[in-house]
Amino acid sequence: MRIALFGASGGTGRQIAGQALERGHAVTAMVRDESSFDAAFIRTNDKLGLEVLDVMDPAAVAKSIAGHDAVASALGPREKGPTTVQSDATRAILEAMTATSVRRLVVVSAAGFHTEGDDPFTKSIAKPIIGRILRHQFADMRAMEALVTASPTDWTIMLPPKLNDGRLMAQYRSARDKTVPRGFNISRADLAHAVLDVLEDPTAIRTTVAVAR
């Protein structure tokens, strides 16, 4: 599979790229700044390419993703205040996918504002507190999810809880169209593993997939 990867320079994106290459996939890392991605990593992997582009520009995105089998987005807001990074970028990606007939899409969102499947404490106490702290990021993610679910793409939305930099264990729980009960954290490495499993699984199309330790 040839994967166009957005957010490749972030912690989750790097894990997706590395694990995808280990599985034999080809990856094109889409970045805003070439210096944000390890050039040595590229030189040692002939299945890894690099595209420097403005992800908010649908024409540039279309040119870069043409010929790929799937798009994966690990983009995330870095601002603490109001932000539209994920929704704006996703809008451009969806427009580009329509223009190029690339259909498969997996995006990383968050479990923090989804409550179906939660226990009463998490639903009524923990998540409302988290939601107030991350209200701007969650608002952007909600808008992003709305764009994705309204699109004609073969989409899957990943819903991880709090991320950490633990090592790959490939041992985690998952749930479709609901949250993982008492799932409070997962490593970026395990999230990347789940993203790639979902990309390879046609039964995951048009579902949300929550993952957690």
UniProtKB/TrEMBL annotation:
Domain of life: Bacteria
InterPro entries hit by this protein: NAD(P)-bd_dom, NAD(P)-bd_dom_sf, Polyketide_Oxido-like
One Pfam family named in its UniProt record: NAD_binding_10
Membrane-spanning residues: none
Domain NAD(P)-binding: 7-202
UniProt name for this protein: NAD(P)H-binding protein
Organism: Georgenia halophila
